[in-house]
């Protein structure tokens, strides 16, 4: 297993889309492994942590982790909706020759994963969502119940549009990077955080705005098996969101995990095993 201190960026691939945009991605796990497309959190990078990569290798999954528009080397797509993720993922899968594949999404990547399951039902085998949010206008849900004040303020600000939210993005990113540099983390973590917060500010902004606007599909229409992982102590995506998804997403199975917003290695392994055919 690669240690954190030895971490180096993996090779990056790119797909040129018919609308002129470019998507960048990395591939992990063994060639010939079960294909999975990963939609990472908000903000994110295509560079996965070494412990996650080790799990991919151990369980035999071939994971494509990509930069959503506005992150890393992926072209920005102003005004994008959650539903737009499906056509991007289809193009990425086509480039790998994948006819069928599973999808997974963590936190802000949960909604894009659900979009793929809803809009690519003939291609997506299973969809796993971890700490995902419900739609902003979800009927019967108090969106902010149990949410940290800072996260709630971010969602409220996103309703005002990209220009207003970008001011917050710049402020928070600069603060986090300064605190991180002072803590002297390992080189790999610093590189990944810098990629998220320096090369992903447009993507972060557009992610948040898309999450508080109509998603472009109905979660109740999903016909693909969906696994919903959520934590009762999560204050970023409170448990009410996971419970709402379980009650409203077709063919959903629920799994709880402990520890807050970020799942531990046991949850990651459980999720990957669930995705396997």
UniProtKB/TrEMBL annotation:
Which SUPFAM superfamilies does its entry note? alpha/beta-Hydrolases
* Top-rank lineage group of the source organism: Bacteria
| First and last residue of the signal peptide | none
GO MF annotations, alphabetized:
hydrolase activity
A Pfam family that this protein carries is Abhydrolase_1
Keywords attached to this entry: Hydrolase
The keyword Hydrolase is annotated on this UniProt entry: yes
Hydrolase as a keyword of this entry, yes or no, is: yes
Which segments constitute the AB hydrolase-1 domain?
A: 47-135
What PANTHER family does UniProt report for this protein, alphabetically? Answer: AB HYDROLASE-1 DOMAIN-CONTAINING PROTEIN (PTHR43433:SF10), HYDROLASE, ALPHA/BETA FOLD FAMILY PROTEIN (PTHR43433)
Q: Which protein, by its recorded name, is this? A: Alpha/beta hydrolase
Organism, scientific name: Actinocatenispora comari
